[in-house]
Structures are given as C-alpha cells and as structure tokens.
C-alpha cells in the first residue's frame, strides 16, 4: 500500500517526479565516475590486461572460420600447414601460390606447394595485425588482398603468431618477432635466391621492422620492407588510438596506461628500428585511417628519410586520399596498388 501511495504521489506531483529523475541521473553519474576512476587503477594493478588490449588475439571476426580450409574463403590455390618455431610450439601457416598456378594447385599436397617455391619469381611474407588471425581484417577482406598479390605473381606466406588463430602459446612482442624470423628463414632457404619482401599491416608493421632490423644486423636484409598503416611506436599509437580518447587528458595517463604497456615489454619501436634498416622501404597509409592515425605513418616516413642506414635506399611514402575511404584496412582496393608495388 505504501509503494502504491508513493507511486501515485510521483505520478501526480511534478516536483517529486523531477526530483526522482534528478536522483537517478545523479546516481548514474556517480556510478560512471567510479567506473572511470576504477578502470585505470585496475589496469595499473593488473598489467596483463593492457597486454591483452594491445594484442586483442582473443577477438576473432568472424569467429567461425576453419583455418584448415582456406578454400572456404575463396582461396582455392592456398595450402594450410603447420611449423614449429621451437619444440612444442606449433603455428599455422598459409601458402598462396601465384594466380597463374591455381589450376596446377588443385588437390595438390604440401610437398607440391613447398617445392613450388623453388621456381618462384618472388614472394611476400605477410605479417598481420592484432584482433584476428592470418585473416586480420576479416576473412573476405584479406582473402582479396592475397588474391591481388597472387594476381601480381607473388607467392604469399601468411601465418598466425603464437596465441592467434589455431597457433599454440600466448603472445608477446619477443615471441611474435621470433616466430616471424623463423618463418622468414624457412621461406628464404626454399626460394632459390628469388626476391623476398616483408609486408606488415598495422601491429604487424611493428613486428616487420623488428624482423628486418635483426636481418640487417646480420647483413642479410630482405629485398624490401612494405609497411601498411604503420605507427612510430606502441606508446604513440596507444595515445592516438580512439579507445584512449576518453582518458587522454587524464592526469597520469602515461603512468596508468603507457607505462603499463612498457611493463609488459611491448615497444614495437619502428621509429628506432628504421635507424638500423638497410633495404628499400615502402609506406602505405590512408588519410582517413582512424585506428592508426595518418600523421603517425607520415612521422615514421620522416624518421626513415633521415636514417643514415637507409641512405642510398629508396624510401617511399604513398598516401591515399580520404575521399577514397580506404580507412585502416581497405588499401587493397586501390587500382594503383599493382603499379605502386611494381615501381
């Protein structure tokens, strides 16, 4: 009876009704403020949370993909297999042969695909970004990229770092780099001196510059490094990412969030790596990229242009106008891509 009376009072008394709404809004505001403060504290106390947010390897879009069947993604000239970068750790690999070989590739086994590398004209080692697998931008999108590269005559080798897709283990910057180096050397010895290019996308650009720096330190650089939607280093990328917008101006932002990334030994310092790289570099970036802002790609290009180790090597930056709507992951749509890569 008391509840009914209270309800009737609220219904017929506008003052009480306004007070009720005000108190609800106030409680909601206080709850949001507590959550706003609570999240940085939890991230600082549990640094592993920040590592998961950087890698996002637990996110799969679309989720129900059988990586053992690249044919389901329209890649009928692609072979799925597994390699072990170290004992007990297995990573999944895709090998897409050039388009002119697709008829010969039908129903062939792994031995045929591997032996085809011996007669390759050129090959690309593709390093994907976070939040996915060797199909980082979604199955249909990256399958089209592989088809484009295949049509240009490239063998394309793409793999999942440990902790991604159906690969074993858990991710770290060190393991991602060592996995990529292992796959690179596996591919290199089978190519019979054919050109080998390293292509990184998004977070994969950080892996790519790590790999190429180590190769150059050993005087065995790849034939070129291609960086699609790259950033300078992970701290600057995290600070520029849309998800950080709500905390960017919070006092102590660096201490709460950026120092926590470093505490996980995650750096991806491409702006430092370019000072140790000695091979041609091509940077591709869309002006309307909201995930990795265009200015970070431009800044990396300027760092590479000033690099003493890159003196005498071609360093090229190719922007894509925002009117094209290529954003973070649609550069493969460019009809100029074939010309850019050939040039």
**Cα end-to-end separation:** 82 Å
Low-confidence stretches: 135-140
Strand order of the largest sheet: 1-2-4-3-5-6-7-8
Helix/strand order = HHHEEHHEHEHEHEHHHEHEH
Number of strands: 8
Instruction: Report Rg.
Output: 24 Å
| Dominant shape | globular
Biggest beta sheet summary: 8 strands, mixed
Strand content: 5-15%
Descriptive account of the structure:
An eight-stranded mixed beta sheet has the order 1-2-4-3-5-6-7-8, sandwiched between helices. The radius of gyration is 24 Å and the shape is globular. The model is unreliable at 135-140 (pLDDT under 50). Strand 5, helix 8 (203-217) and strand 6 form a beta-alpha-beta unit. By secondary structure, it is an alpha/beta fold. Helix 2 runs parallel beside helix 10, helix 3 crosses helix 10 and helix 9 crosses helix 10. The chain contains 13 helices and eight strands. Keywords: Endoplasmic reticulum, Glycoprotein, Hydrolase, Lipid metabolism, Membrane, Transmembrane, Transmembrane helix.
């Amino acid at each position: 009876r008391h509840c009914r009376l209270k309800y009737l009072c609220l219904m017929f008394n506008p003052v009480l009704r306004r007070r009720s709404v005000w108190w609800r809004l106030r409680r909601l505001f206080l709850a949001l403020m507590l959550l706003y403060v609570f999240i940085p504290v939890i991230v600082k106390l549990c640094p592993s949370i920040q590592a998961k947010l950087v890698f996002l390897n637990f996110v799969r879009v679309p989720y129900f993909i059988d990586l053992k069947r690249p044919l389901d993604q329209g890649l009928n000239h692609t072979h799925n297999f597994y390699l072990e970068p170290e004992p007990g750790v297995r990573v999944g690999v895709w090998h897409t042969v050039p388009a002119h070989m697709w008829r010969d590739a039908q129903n062939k086994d792994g031995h045929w695909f591997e032996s085809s590398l011996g007669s390759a004209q050129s090959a690309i080692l593709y390093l994907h970004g976070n939040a996915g697998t060797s199909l980082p931008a979604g199955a249909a999108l990256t399958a089209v990229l592989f088809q484009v590269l295949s049509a240009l005559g490239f063998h394309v080798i793409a793999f999942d770092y440990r902790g991604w897709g159906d690969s074993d283990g858990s991710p770290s910057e060190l393991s991602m780099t060592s996995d990529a180096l292992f796959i690179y050397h596996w591919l290199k010895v089978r190519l019979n001196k054919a050109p080998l290019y390293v292509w990184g996308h998004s977070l994969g650009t950080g892996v790519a510059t790590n790999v190429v720096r180590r190769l150059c330190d050993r005087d065995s650089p790849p034939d070129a490094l291609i960086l699609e939607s790259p950033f300078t280093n992970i701290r600057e990328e995290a600070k520029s990412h849309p998800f950080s917008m709500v905390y960017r101006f919070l006092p102590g932002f660096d201490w709460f969030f950026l120092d926590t990334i470093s505490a996980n030994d995650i750096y991806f310092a491409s702006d430092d790596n370019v000072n140790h790289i000695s091979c041609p570099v091509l940077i591709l970036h869309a002006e309307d990229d909201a995930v990795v802002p265009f200015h970070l790609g431009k800044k990396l290009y300027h760092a590479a242009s000033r690099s003493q180790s890159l003196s005498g090597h071609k360093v090229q930056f190719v922007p894509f106008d925002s009117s094209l709507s290529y954003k973070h992951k649609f550069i493969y749509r460019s009809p100029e891509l074939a010309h850019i890569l050939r040039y």
